[in-house]
Amino acid sequence: MVYHPRPSWWLPEREATPEPLYLNRRAIVGSLALAAAVPAVAATGVDRLAKLAHRRTREAGEPPTPLADVAGYNNFYEFGLDKADPARRAGSLRPSPWTVAIGGLVKKPLILDVDRFIARAPWEERVYRFRCVEGWSMVIPWVGVPFSSLIQAVEPLGHARYVAFRTLGDPEQMPGLRSPVLDWPYREGLRIDEAMHDLTLLAAGLYGRRLPNQNGAPLRLVVPWKYGFKSIKSIVSIDFVATQPPTSWNVASPREYGFYSNVNPEVDHPRWSQARERRIGEFRRRPTLLFNGYPEVAGLYAGMDLRRFF
Amino acid sequence: MRLAIPSLLKPAAHAVMAIPLVLLAWGWGELLFWNPASRALSAEPVAYTHNALGLAALRALLLSLACTPVRRLTGWGRVMTLRRLLGLWAFAYAALHLAFYLWAELDLNVAELAAEVAKRPFILAGLMAFLALVPLALTSTAGAIRRLGARRWQALHRLAYLAGGAAVVHFILRVKGFQWEPWVYLAILVALLLLRLTSRGSASRARGRPSGARATG
Prior knowledge:
Distance between the termini of chain A: 42 Å
Oligomer: heterodimer
Strand content of chain A: 15-25%
Shape of chain A: globular
Largest interface: A-B, 26 and 21 residues
Number of helices of chain B: 9
Distance between the termini of chain B: 18 Å
Radius of gyration of chain B: 19 Å
Order of helices and strands of chain B: HHHHHHHHH
Largest sheet of chain B: none
Number of helices of chain A: 8
Structural class of chain A: alpha+beta
Helix content of chain A: 10-25%
Shape of chain B: globular
Strand content of chain B: under 5%
């Protein structure tokens, strides 16, 4: 008989926050304000974020990008279109309390209480390269757990072939939702084998502390071999589905942003070349590497035409 | 008897037009020499500089195109002394924007420019905008007006609207997703063009003499 021990952060359905309260975060925060164990997270003051105990399991072989840039140069259109907007305006995001609804075609759907998860999960620090589709890149020491551990806990059914993710879409917390640049809320997706790959990280922190709001607090994905917009931020739901789910940038511009969006110097964006990138902090551009320099994922795409499935 | 007080209008206009350039120069000075950790030009100073130069060029061009409508609407004749100044600043910023692109993105590889123009419509639009400004810069002097004659000069300088249109298209095609900012510039350009076209019919000034070389009132 196969025995799957429950992870320490697993939370039974009956302990989940009732949906009306879940949706009315202000009431929750207000009532818990005095008892809150987790301090409110401001967009600035990244050094006041709670530390996450971790062990380093992966190096990048290059110096990491300074924290001021990682937390100060962001694309998070829910808080504005300028690169400096998320750091300036993400103070309105309330990353605690927060739950993630994990369900769909799974045997054991669950509601993840993020604070409990953060307190108990076996965090790893992984230094990954991060490559934006716009042509700039960083090296970031993320703190996360392999997303595969979550997949194993929920036990997807046989016909679950894809994983669909959704970001928070609350106009009260996110002033940028007024802009129609994308169809809100932000959605992303992975093929289930991509989600199962050891590189795919469910991240709760960077530089040893909890995620700043502008980096997608409290929980985000990091898929280092794909363009950065696939690494969805501030996740509220994860669904296992049978068919390829819609993803926000693909819906907005299907010719420019494919479902896979693997980093590939030989497949140009229609409006600019992807052959080179500018590492933040450097002036000259450097060559872009296939799969952002993570050849271990090549097996996922054996036999696939990467130009057609871009 | 009246004292001839030199006008501060043109020096003030030059100073305002120079602000983006001064800020960029300061930011690069910091980065390269006295404060390498400065983020005055954001974490990605190359992209920041690019955008700043392009926006400065577009704004200067639109301001230049606004001079005649402003005079017609307000009767403030002195604004016409700014038209050439603003147009030349637009050309200067456009030239800097193109030069910076050639240096920072293409490593001064002109063959790559040809390839990029062929592949990317927005680069073609940008280059068209710059090329449309070149004859305008070359014929911006009073001597050129004399040589060309008022009517031909006036006709040539309508290229400014083409430059503005190409620049706005360049901007619209450049941004990711639907963003309102470039469309605002398009709206301003269209409004300026409409103001010129509609007031032409009702203008009482039948002479149509270009007034870039001389202040009127």
